[in-house]
Amino acid sequence: MVLKRMEIGLGVLAAMIAAAGPALAAEDFGEALLGGKPIIDLRIRYEHVEQDGVANNADAYTGRARLGYATGSFHGFTVLTDFDLVGHAGSEDYNDTINGRTSYPVVADPDTAELNRLQIAYDGLPDTIVTLGRQRIILGNARFVGNVGWRQNEQTFDALRVVNSSIDGLTLGYTYLNRVNRVFGEDSVAGRFRGDSHLVNIDYTGVGGVTLGGYAYLLDLNEAPQFSTETYGARLSVPLKLAEKTKLVLTGEYANQTDYEGNPASVDLDYMLAEAAFSHDAFGFTVGYEVLEGDGTTGFSTALATLHAFNGWADVFLTTPAAGLEDLYLGATYALNNIPAIEKLVLGVTWHDFSAERGGAGFGDELDAVANFVLSKNLSLNLKFASFNGGSGFASRDKTWLSLTYAY
């Protein structure tokens, strides 16, 4: 079935190309093939987790090698492929979600060796890019669709994606999504979501830096029908220049979600966000309030999101509680440049207060902190900490990460 759908996608792509211009020549194929760029993305990480109610602390020493190649352009065509190789060092004193070590907290980085991306892109049509195959897709701020790049094995999508920017300031995107390749890997029963999903995005940035976006996400997920939903939303972001180096960005977002296709539940839930981000020179401050409704049985879902980036780095709320979630957060950052032996150092801290959207019960609070050292153009060191103080049945936990990344 997957191959059949890919064949249909190739047929659509071929028809578009045939309509775009003359037949392709082959004389510069070798130049395009050899004129590409290797993909080298290496990361080693230590992750430590202490969690109430779990017998042992987790200590995970993992590494990721993402290796591949992107060709040069041949009459508008480019091909990209890469592989993820993930492994661990030392004893497996953590639950990677498939090793059965449930007396340890979860560190969702199982050993795996798998195809990460294999895509062909065509940009020979006016102001249009068509991409077919296994690809990385990040829509907007990744709140609804992202690559979960924090984990060692990223999330990718088997899809046909078309993006058009013919009108100044306006970007139109459509994606037909056949399969989600999740971070848990091929050996996990939760490693794949199959189905027929459609993603539509419209973004307009034509007036004074104001960004207005609309989206429709129709998710049909065979392996997770409880996440098969139809979501329509809009996002508005308004930048205000207060002084030469001082800016305020106000953002608001609203979405409504209902059940779709094989979802066994009746769903009608809202999502709301209000955020103000202030920056002055190297300093930044953010205050925000995010609401994901719950009806007592089901919570608003964002199953394809880069969830680690939202609602606290301790990853307590990867699935929205049935009573919904309210997240009041305050954050501050400071960037230092031209430090000896370091190109840039970014420090950040964020505090969250979590409560139920339905009933108002306190779920707990969390403090997150990060120090990101940009050592060179290709090399970075990241130290990160999250401490969640739980309530209403959510277990307290502390997480610490130390990561070294090389990307070429």
Average pLDDT level = 93
Order of helices and strands: HHEEEEEEEEEEEEEEEEEE
Strand content: over 45%
Largest sheet, in brief, is:
18 strands, antiparallel, barrel
Question: Treating each run of at least 4 consecutive H or I residues as one helix, how many helices?
Answer: 2
**Record field, number of beta strands:** 18
Write down the oligomeric state.
single chain
Runs with pLDDT <50, length 5+? 1-10, 12-26
| Rounded Rg | 22 Å
Tertiary shape: globular
Walk me through the structure.
Strand 15 (342-355) and strand 16 form a beta hairpin. The chain is 6% helix and 54% strand. The protein has an 18-stranded antiparallel β-barrel. It has 408 residues and is mainly β. The chain contains two helices and 18 strands.
How would the blueprint of this fold be written?
Layout: H1 2-20, H2 29-34, E1 37-51, E2 58-70, E3 77-88, E4 112-122, E5 128-135, E6 156-164, E7 170-181, E8 192-207, E9 210-218, E10 229-243, E11 246-259, E12 268-280, E13 283-292, E14 325-339, E15 342-355, E16 362-374, E17 379-390, E18 397-407
Antiparallel strand pairs: 1-2, 1-18, 2-3, 3-4, 4-5, 5-6, 6-7, 7-8, 8-9, 9-10, 10-11, 11-12, 12-13, 13-14, 14-15, 15-16, 16-17, 17-18
Quick structural overview:
With 408 residues, the protein is mainly β. It has helices at 2-20, 29-34, and strands at residues 37-51, 58-70, 77-88, 112-122, 128-135, 156-164, 170-181, 192-207, 210-218, 229-243, 246-259, 268-280, 283-292, 325-339, 342-355, 362-374, 379-390, 397-407.
